[in-house]
């Protein structure tokens, strides 16, 4: 172990302190690099949601990368090829030097250590620990008479998000929905990017938002909200778009 490796390990300890478990620390100690991994090294995701593990390749590294699962030594991907039969796993190249290991729907057994191995002259290895969490307990808002859910799919080059707000009071016409992306209200005046259509019928409001000519620049956490009811959707755009909704 050289001085640089020792420095990086102590850097990990400094960043995460004693709050990180020994299992997590054992994972991160497998990192071998001249520079610290600029991407997130601990990824927390709620079960049934997608997970994204990033690997930032040094700018001067023009070599393929491979993702390996430490628990069984399985090679999941190499370059842009997937080697696992589990269809939930995919790999994508988000930019010139960022490779993303995509997990469509995380399950508890997916928790563990993953290595991004770069075939350069330094044999660089970055470690990422994935922790799959239990869904949060229902909030008091979820027990109210209104419910909100958000679903998404791809139509051509558009992402289509359908937000449905249902009230047990069929005469309730006071249902106003607010749309946000990463916590910021969406500007529907930008009709070149967003189209919104609304349908109302007996206590049910269905709002459909279309994101036109969707690219990776439109990645984000989209949400529709009414009163204290909120449904969110992580959108990650690749050649194939896989979306899983979650209700908060």
List keywords for this structure.
single chain; 248 residues; mainly beta; Immunoglobulin-like; 5-stranded antiparallel sheet; disordered N terminus
Question: Would you give an account of this structure?
Answer:
The protein is mainly beta and 248 residues long. The protein has two helices and 18 strands. It has helices at residues 3-16, 22-28, and strands at 42-46, 51-56, 65-69, 74-78, 81-82, 89-95, 98-103, 112-118, 125-133, 146-155, 158-167, 178-181, 184-185, 194-201, 204-211, 220-226, 229-235, 245-247. A hairpin with a 2-residue loop joins β6 and β7 (98-103). The longest helix has 14 residues, at 3-16. The protein starts with a helix and ends with a strand.
Helices, by number, come to 2
CATH architecture descriptor text of the largest domain? Sandwich
Average pLDDT taken over every residue: 78
The secondary-structure element order is HHEEEEEEEEEEEEEEEEEE
Strand order of the biggest β-sheet: 1-9-8-3-4-5
Reported by name, the CATH topology of the largest domain is: Immunoglobulin-like
Q: Helical proportion? A: under 10%
Low-confidence segments, ≥5 residues, pLDDT <50?
1-18, 239-248
Structural class: mainly beta
Distance between the termini: 45 Å
Q: What is the CATH level 1 assignment of the largest domain?
A: Mainly Beta
The proportion of residues in beta strands is: 35-45%
CATH H-level superfamily title of the largest domain: Immunoglobulins
Per the principal axes of the C-alpha atoms, what is the gross shape?
A: elongated
As a whole number of angstroms, the C-alpha radius of gyration is: 21 Å
Largest sheet geometry: 6 strands, mixed
Secondary structure tally: strands: 18
Number of domains: 2
InterPro entries: Ig-like_dom (IPR007110), Ig-like_dom_sf (IPR036179), Ig-like_fold (IPR013783), Ig_sub (IPR003599), Ig_sub2 (IPR003598), Ig_V-set (IPR013106), Immunoglobulin_dom (IPR013151), Zig-8 (IPR037448)
GO biological process, one term: synapse organization
Organism: Caenorhabditis remanei
Keywords: Signal
